[in-house]
Design a protein that fits this description.
InterPro entries: GH (IPR017853), Glyco_hydro_3_AS (IPR019800), Glyco_hydro_3_N (IPR001764), Glyco_hydro_3_N_sf (IPR036962), NagZ_Beta-hexosaminidase (IPR050226). Belongs to the glycosyl hydrolase 3 family. It holds the Pfam family Glyco_hydro_3. With 472 residues, the chain is of the alpha/beta class. The strands form two sheets. The chain has an eight-stranded parallel barrel with strand order 1-2-3-4-5-6-7-8. Strands 9-14-13-12-10-11 form a six-stranded mixed β-sheet, with no helix packed on it. Helix 5 runs parallel beside helix 6 and helix 16 packs across helix 17. The radius of gyration is 23 Å and the shape is globular.
């Protein structure tokens, strides 16, 4: 390989954020980092405990100058606490409280934990304005449905993370909140006029840009008025014209995971990578699926098809981000006292709870989104019997018989999106009006129960706040 070919390959590899299985870095990742690989994205399967993550990131840094990223939104989407649930409430809870100082403190605490583990880029906050109640992928990840509220809390989150030298990655540009489809599975469409896009979807991103957000993540959504039927991730109109020229953003643009079906089922992984770079992205998150051979094919495709000037431009932006990483003093992790305090402020009670008598807790299981993954959720109520049931398989009469003479507590998650959950809850509440219903998603649908508790998220902190209400 000639000197120029090696230089071109290094530029192409420098755009990639790869993933790998396990809690230690495989040899191929370390070898690629030595040869200029841009960095890695960590997932729940890479995380054991903070000490292990710090050791892992240390080994990555010994091999190169990687951008080390993950999704740590707090709430339902967590990677550091993937196996136990997040100690921080997510955006919906913070939006319900609507205290920007609290949001700043929560994100600063999250950032300090990430920095102590050696992570320098957090793929957060979610700046989507969640205007579709049945949005299957955003929901409690959004601060809410009001544009101004989302904008001010996005700014607070960005400043909180970046105050401890962890770069924010504001997502999902130009807005994923009005969709009714998951881009992991297909290409969602945001069919609005450009005026609506500017007034609603784009306002939080404009605010984040003004607040100095170091990176912005693309959305695999089509906006017919802007991108036609092309996902924004692959659209020069979205990334080069709108984001760069019109909004004046010159930070790092990161693609959402390119292994999602919205990309792989349309143009393929390597084709999507090259097209995203050509459209204006600077770093490409490949997602958890692609392995070593896939990475080699992606690098080859980028080197063969993307103009070197575009790769040099991307490299310069990433180099500026790395320089910023080194400009501050890494903090130590702060003792988490803010997470539960924030969740307590967010929880809402309608009606009145009764003293508990040998409680039966019935959790209605609903499938997690791919973004959330198998993060544990539910109630940990001391001295209670807890059963988890699939709502379309549960027998209301059996539950009622089992709960005879006992306190009945039913826990749901986004019941408004699941007909079987609403039907079962209605049957139980009709027979037992003293039932307490706890909604751990968005409180869109509310049954006529004696007590209704809305937590605005299913993180461990949200569950603890609900338990406190039940046992007060």
């Amino acid at each position: 390989m000639s000197q120029s070919d090696r230089g071109l390959r290094r530029l192409a590899a420098g755009t990639l954020l790869v993933a790998f299985q396990g809690t230690t870095a495989p040899d191929w990742v370390l070898r690629e980092l030595e040869q200029g690989l841009g960095g890695v994205t960590l997932f729940g399967f890479n995380v054991g405990n903070p000490a292990q993550v710090a050791e892992l990131t240390g080994s990555l840094r010994a091999a190169g100058e990687p951008v080390i990223s993950l999704d740590e939104e707090g709430g339902d989407v967590t990677r550091l606490a993937y196996h136990v649930g997040s100690p921080y409430p997510g955006n919906a809870a913070l939006g319900a409280v609507d205290d920007v100082e609290l949001t700043h403190r929560v994100y600063r605490a999250i950032g300090s934990e990430l920095a102590a583990c050696g992570i320098n880029l957090d793929m957060a906050p979610d700046a989507d304005v969640n205007t579709a109640d049945d949005n299957p992928v955003i929901g409690t990840r959004s601060f809410g449905s009001d544009t101004a509220l989302v904008a001010r809390h996005t700014v607070a989150a960005v400043r909180g993370l970046q105050s401890v030298n962890v770069a924010a990655c504001v997502k999902h540009f130009p807005g994923h909140g009005a969709t009714r489809m998951d881009s992991h599975l297909a290409i969602p469409v945001v069919d609005v006029t450009m005026d609506v896009l500017y007034e609603r979807e784009l306002a939080p991103f404009q605010a984040a840009i003004q607040a100095g957000a170091k990176s912005i993540m693309t959305a695999h959504v089509a906006v017919p008025a802007l991108t036609g039927d092309t996902p924004a991730t692959l659209s020069a109109a979205a990334l080069s014209v709108l984001l760069r020229q019109e909004l004046g953003y010159d930070g790092v643009v990161v693609s959402d995971a390119l292994d999602m079906h919205a990309i792989t089922k349309s143009v393929g992984l390597a084709g999507g990578a090259a097209r995203s770079l050509a459209a204006g992205a600077d770093m490409l998150c490949l997602g958890p699926v692609p392995g070593y051979d896939d990475v080699q094919r992606v690098i080859a495709e980028i080197a063969a098809t993307v103009p070197v000037e575009r790769l040099e431009e991307a490299a310069a932006r990433v180099a500026a981000l790395r320089e910023w990483f080194g400009s501050g003093t890494a903090p130590t992790a702060e003792l988490n006292v803010i997470g539960l305090a924030a969740a307590r402020r967010a929880v809402r009670l309608t009606g009145a709870t009764n003293p508990l008598t040998n409680p039966l807790v019935v959790e209605l299981d609903t499938p997690p989104t791919i973004a959330v993954g198998d993060v544990p959720w539910g109630l940990e109520l001391p001295e209670a019997e807890t059963v988890r049931l699939k709502p379309d398989e549960a027998d209301a009469l059996e539950i009622l018989e089992r709960a005879r003479g006992r306190s009945l507590i039913v826990v749901v998650k986004d019941a408004h999106r699941h007909t079987a959950s609403r039907r079962l809850v209605t049957m139980l509440v009709t027979a037992r009006p003293d039932t307490t219903v706890i909604e751990m998603g968005l409180p869109v649908w509310q049954p006529d129960s004696a007590a209704y508790i809305a937590t605005y998220g299913a993180a461990r902190a949200n569950a603890m706040a609900a338990v406190e209400l039940l046992t007060a």
